[in-house]
Write a structure and sequence with these properties.
The protein is low in regular secondary structure and about 350 residues long. The protein has helices at about 1-20, 25-30, 290-295, 300, 330-335; strands at about 45-50, 65-70, 90-95, 115-120, 140, 160-165, 190, 210, 235, 260, 280, 315, 340. It contains five helices and 13 strands. The chain has a 13-stranded parallel sheet, with no helix packed on it.
Length: about 350
């Protein structure tokens, strides 16, 4: 009876797998080749969990692995042989290891022609890895020691939509049009908590989300966003922006929805674009806010506006400044869709 129950349980686990177009022979080969240091769930045979095992080297990975979790180990090197059998990988998590740029062998990642997500946060890399597979869509390299983006490193990565480089040591001379060339499909780039003093150059026009918090940026060139017609989410919190370095209408772009300028040195509210929905200006040095100066619509035109065509601002944060309530009436009249003001 016990044997029958065991067979029944195995069939229950294998059945859904076979229904997902994994042949029985492949399933058995995958399960039997599971490294002893790792865990390979029978009901999810394409995933191999080797995380939190104190591993110093990458074990031999089964051939039908799509999702490989190696985070929270002490792996120092990644060679071309490390994942020689795992040519079908889609998702590779190497977060929280000790991999250095010297320990990452050239071409080690390029052979993974199906890889879509690569996580290498919290390692010891000093440069963005070269020879990345053209299939890559998300590359996460936050909190390393990266100070260099080699020229041409993104060449051929036409599918890459997310690049996370926050918490590294990038300076202005590392983030250039040459170093970013090839990012033709980029949607989100995170350069927060680096050592930038200027707005980065060479960002692709596809950029929708730009995160630059925690740098040393003091000014934004006039017309900077003309080359970024799709930017919708812009974060510049905790920089050194003063109103003298921010042209009054620099944010007057139709695509922007969320603008964050908290913890800077602004003394004036910049012109608010009509389509903006969220604006954070807290913890600056602003003393007053005047509707006639910040409203994107003239007072004469406001009388003819209906809610559908009025300025879209819904959330405004002004606390931590030198503004005293109440908010002027002309500001309320301009931004009729405001649901919350923090002052």
């Amino acid at each position: 009876m016990a044997l029958l129950l065991s067979l029944f349980c195995i069939l229950c686990l294998v059945g859904p797998v076979l229904g997902q177009d994994m042949p029985y022979e492949d399933y058995m080969a995958q399960i039997q080749a599971c490294p002893r240091e790792c865990r390979c769930p029978p009901n999810f045979p394409n995933a191999v969990y080797c995380d939190n095992k104190g591993l110093k080297v990458i074990p031999k990975i089964p051939p039908y692995t799509w999702y490989l979790y190696l985070q929270n180990n002490v792996i120092e090197a990644f060679s071309a042989d490390s994942l020689r059998n795992a040519t079908q990988l889609r998702w590779l998590n190497l977060n929280h290891n000790k991999i250095t740029s010297e320990g990452l062998e050239g071409g080690a990642l390029n052979k993974m022609s199906h890889l879509v997500h690569l996580y290498m946060d919290d390692n010891l890399l000093s440069a963005v890895p070269s020879d990345l597979p053209s299939s890559l869509e998300q590359l996460r390299l936050s909190r390393n020691r990266i100070s260099k983006i080699p020229a041409g490193v993104f060449s051929g990565l036409d599918r890459l939509s997310l690049l996370d480089l926050q918490g590294n040591k990038l300076m202005d001379d590392a983030v250039t049009e040459v170093s970013l060339k090839g990012l033709n499909s980029l949607v989100q780039i995170n350069l927060a908590k680096n050592q930038l003093s200027n707005m980065p150059l060479g960002l692709p026009p596809t950029t929708t989300q730009l995160f630059l918090d925690g740098n040393n940026i003091e000014k934004i060139p006039a017309g900077y966003f003309k080359g970024l017609p799709k930017v919708a989410f812009l974060r510049l919190n905790r920089n050194k922006l003063g109103s003298g370095g921010v042209p009054k209408d620099v944010f007057n772009i139709s695509s922007i929805l969320d603008l964050q300028l908290s913890h800077n040195q602004l003394t004036e509210v910049p012109l608010i674009p009509a389509g903006l929905e969220h604006l954070l200006l807290d913890h600056n040095k602003i003393k007053s806010v005047n509707g006639s100066d910040v409203c994107p619509v003239s007072s004469e035109a406001l009388d003819d506006y209906v809610n559908e065509s009025a300025p879209r601002l819904r959330y405004l944060r002004l606390d931590g400044n030198e503004i005293k309530p109440p908010i002027p009436r002309d500001v309320i009249l301009c931004f009729r869709l405001l649901r919350s003001i923090v002052i």
